[in-house]
Amino acid sequence: MPELPEVETIRRDLETRVVGHSFSSVQLLWSRAVRQPNPEEFTHRLTGQKIESLERRGKYLIFHLSSGAALILHLRMSGWLHYTSSSSPLEIYCRNVFFMDDGSQIQFCDRRKLGAIWLVANPEEVVGKLGPDPLAPNFTPKLLKQRLQKRSAPIKAVLCNQEVLSGVGNMYADEALFRAKIHPLKKAGDLSFKEITRLHQSIRQVLQTALSQRGASIADYKDTEGQPGTAQLAFAVAHQRGKNCPVCGTPIQRIAVRNRGTYFCPSCQKLIHSKNS
Ligand SMILES: [Zn+2]
Question: Could you confirm whether 52 is annotated as catalytic?
Fold first, then answer.
């Protein structure tokens, strides 16, 4: 699933191309992706709207429009956006097409048809409950401590909860926990401040590194030109079952944490730590 680095890569690529341009029309080939309003109203209200700016909140992409309304996209499991400067054949699994006033188009491709689209007066209706962004300047170890405290769920599950922290998903949670040497099943509320400080730094590092590598392409994700990211090539544990831990050589294990495939090193990430860890 595209997480913060993938969505931010898309945002940066699109920003230089579409801000200042208007939607000339929309072709809804899979109108069920539109959650709000109904497809007819969606098409009518979006057509002619100019894009003022492009924002990312967690894994959501927000197009701020000249009317004051916002077009919001969520790629979910298998979505990606294909941008072409002129009309071109539809990509495989293209579900919806946004045509721009300069002849370019954004194709919303989505193999599993789980992606979602909203057109709302106030973006907070959709993204209002999201937790803080881990790359924002105000994301500090202290803030992370506040978000984790009193939570008895496994830290892996809590990191993936978008209302606790926005933008981190399965892949980067595994990578951050490995770097911080924290077992994915440890209760979030039981982490020491030392562990939280390590985790805070690890989360930022894995996200920033992945962003510099234009995201990870494990399954369907591609950038707006159809190119894969390369962050997965540097993964230490995520999707590395059977390979050896790059630090200690122990085979990476995969377990399920709240139904999420979770990869970790059983030697570097022990469930019981000494008091000083
Ligand atoms: Zn290890």
Answer: no
Q: CA 61 from chain center: how many Å?
A: 10
| φ/ψ (deg, to 5) at 74 | -130, 125
Is the pLDDT reported for residue 274 higher than 60? no
Report CA(180)–ligand 1 centroid distance (Å): 12
Catalytic residue among 3, 8, 175, 195: 3
**Catalytic-role residue among 228, 260, 266, 270:** 260
CA 168 to ligand 1 centroid distance, Å: 22
Q: How far is the CA of 270 from the centre of ligand 1 (A)?
A: 10
Q: What's the predicted TM-score (pTM) here?
A: 0.95
Q: How far apart are CA 75 and CA 174, in angstroms?
A: 20
| Cα 69 to ligand 1 centre (Å) | 49
The C-alpha atoms of residue 91 and residue 77 are separated, in whole angstroms, by: 17
Q: What is the mean pLDDT of residues 168-179?
A: 98
Tell me what pLDDT residue 177 has.
98
Active-site residue, from 45, 56, 57, 59: 59
3-state secondary structure of 147: helix
Residue 246 tokens read as 């790059």
Q: What share of the chain is helix, strand, coil (3-state, %, to 5)?
A: 30, 25, 45
Does the active-site annotation cover 112?
no
Strands 79-84 and 60-65, bridge-based pairing: unpaired
Sign, Cα dihedral of 102, 41, 37, 113: negative
pLDDT at 275: 53
Place of tokens 């830290």: 155
What are 88-132's pLDDT values in tens digits?
899 999 999 999 999 999 999 999 999 999 999 999 999 999 999
pLDDT at 238 over 80: yes
Tokens of 157: 């599950």
pLDDT at 149 over 90: yes
